[in-house]
Amino acid sequence: MEDRIIIRRETEDDINEVNILIRNSFWNVYRPGCSEHLIASRLRVSSCFIRELDLVMELDGKIIGQIMYVKSHIDTAHGKLSTAIFGPVSIASQYQRKGLGLYLVKHSLDIASELGIKAVLIEGNPDFYRHAGFIRASDKHIYSNADNQDNPYLLVKELSLGYLDNVGGIYSVPSEYFLSEEEIVAFDKLFPPMKKAVSSSS
């Protein structure tokens, strides 16, 4: 299948199709409905957006996956250390569990390295992302809070060997990832209605 795949930069004409892909991929996965399509829209107009890493995956000319990156940083004892973060990343449901997500992540990391990015952090499934070389951020003494509490889902990969040696610090997530419920509901009204999951406690 990989010989039929093209990974390229997202264009303006792709945005609506990609937003629908993201919405369909994340719908009812982590919460009733989802917010990732709004996050993507906010990231595209952010000053921290890395346009060279705003990528789509095509299979036989149809977009089946996407990934996007933004600049981020670690607050260390010696100042801010530049890093990057990716997400949302999604694969159309009918093509999931075929290795395409990992293929897209690895391809994007190669481009990130070529662009001079030294380290990438994400919050995700350790069992999946270890196949792309990610480890727990706490192994590098990087935490998401001042209490240094280990978050097993905060992961890191050095693209420049030794970049994070003897550094440590608090990872700062770009503000574009934080949304209010009102913003999510208003944005989702721009899309065709979909049924939200209802929790057993409702």
Description:
- 24% of the residues lie in helices and 31% in strands.
- It is an alpha+beta fold and 202 residues long.
- It has one domain: 3-Layer(aba) Sandwich (Aminopeptidase).
- Strands 1, 2, 3, 4, 5, 6, 7, 8 and 9 form a nine-stranded mixed sheet that branches.
- The chain is globular.
- It starts with a strand and ends in a 14-residue tail after the last helix.
SSE layout:
Elements: E1 5-9, H1 15-26, H2 36-44, E2 49-59, E3 62-76, E4 79-91, H3 100-114, E5 119-123, H4 126-129, E6 135-136, E7 142-143, E8 154-158, E9 169-172, H5 181-188
Parallel strand pairs: 4-5, 7-9
Antiparallel strand pairs: 1-2, 2-3, 3-4, 3-9, 5-8, 6-8
Helix pairs in contact: 1-2
Give short descriptive properties of this protein.
nine-stranded mixed sheet, 202 residues, alpha+beta, Aminopeptidase, 24% helix, single chain, 5 helices
CATH C-level: Alpha Beta
Measured by DSSP, the beta-strand proportion falls in 25-35%
Number of strands: 9
Question: Helical segment tally?
Answer: 5
- The CATH superfamily is known as Gcn5-related N-acetyltransferase (GNAT)
How many domains comprise the coordinates? 1
Order of helices and strands: EHHEEEHEHEEEEH
Roughly what percent helix? 10-25%
- Overall pLDDT level: 94
* Global shape: globular
**Which topology does CATH recognise?**
Aminopeptidase
Mind summarizing the main beta sheet?
A: 9 strands, mixed
Q: Do you know the CATH architecture?
A: 3-Layer(aba) Sandwich
Uncertain parts: none
Strand pairing plus helix content: what structural class?
A: alpha+beta
Termini Cα gap:
43 Å
Radius of gyration: 17 Å
